[in-house]
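Problem: given the chain below (538 residues), write out its structure.
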Amino acid sequence: MRRVGTPQHWTSQLASQIRGFLSWIFALTAFICVRLSALTLPHILHPLHPVPSAGLRIAGVAFSLSLPIQSVVFAMAWWTVWRRKRSARGWAIVASLFFVLHSVLVLYLARNVPQQAALWDVVLFVLAIGVAGIIVFSPRSLAARLDEKAPAQPPIPGDGTNALIDKAIWIFGLVGFFVGSNWWADWANAEGLDMSVGLLYFFEILLASLVVTLVHELGHAIVGKALGMKLRAFIVGPFQWRIRGGKWEFQFRPAKIFAAGGATGVVPTTMEQFRANQICMMAAGPFASLIGGLLAFCGAFTAPNSRWEPAWQLLALIATISLLASIFNLIPFRTGTGYSDGAQIYQLLSNGPWGDYHRALSIVGSTLVTPLRPRDFDIEAIRRAADCIVHGPRGLHLRLLSSLYYLDCGRFPEASQTLTEAEGLYQESASEIPAELHTDFVFGKAFLQRDGAGARLWWDRMEAKNPSRFNGDYYAARSALLWSENHLQEAEEAWQKGYALAQQLPKAGAYELDRDRFALLRKVLDESLSTHQAQDLP
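Solution.
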């Protein structure tokens, strides 16, 4: 059995997150270089401020003259990494070398300048960024891996998004952050406040992002609970809480440290006023960000000569990021396979397939906390949504839900057919499909279609994704696979392990189907064991 969470796997994920984080550092640096070019080039021969040494003056002139070139290099590094171009490795390494070159040069030229602690702090931080960039972008195989990007997901009609806005929203957000930071810097200078620089400033940005994400997700969770929903998951960057097997589990995922995103999983216990409740819950996130941003703004603005003055910059960062998040989250846009709160609110308000999609998902969630079973799914809504959403992981998920519905109804031919439909969308969705979801395909290929080779293919796909949960579904899939390959004794052992785990699951509709699948497996296993024993008799 393949075990999960190897150091190599974590390292690979962390390196990927760092590359994504550095791409936005490159974007910010390109923007800064353009601005500095406009400010410094006119004053190369006659600096506005005295320079401590001739060496630093020479370095300043060389730096100013290279700014236009650096702007291009950093912009290309950002663009190619963001778009996963094959040339990203080269551009990113050159950009990282610029960081290293300038930091080493300044440290050397300023070695005899007194009172340089702040300068060293900034330059050492820039040096660390450059070294990190060289490390994570240096593997020779990276160019090929970047080129192997997941197939682009075509826009889905009626989802409320626009391709141009999807691309531009991040640039607007970066510009908004830069403008806000400049405003706070000018204000701090006027107030005589100390400003964090270098590594400390970087950590304050990370902490501020986590605080903003926490407040945003708490908005979703609190309003959802107030409306009678059940909390199933709460994620803030690397800190992840989920209910699995009826129990809360906590995971710290280091690879998500540089991804400040979050998620809240709440499911309804009733479908009454479904649309209004969902819209209120979705809107609560941006509203919480707005309130949190205004409170942080007041805290930062009143910080001079107060007890919390040392924390003014952290409060300013929280205010800037939170207010931007409250505005941009209400704009409908798509992020890969995800949607902003604004896009989901638009979809909930619309009539047609997207309304069906959200209703279908809500009923699916309800089966985890109520007696509703997959056979109680609104199959007509699922099929209407599936007729519109014909690509990507959402299309695959809808077809897989249809298969579970028919399986729970005992309509095995329809369950097999819709499983095949879901299977047809796998290649374009593989990167977004978690390992745990593969168990339904393994079970279906083995039990419904009696296809041992197909079940083995899906099992290998699951193993390649490093599954982290060895629960009842895992052992049900393993038992079905081994049964289809006629390894009856091993299938029996897997069945016993999985059945014991299934009996510990809560009394809810989704888990009743899990227990019923073991009953179905028990029947075919007994038949096969009886046949095998009869063949062994003289």
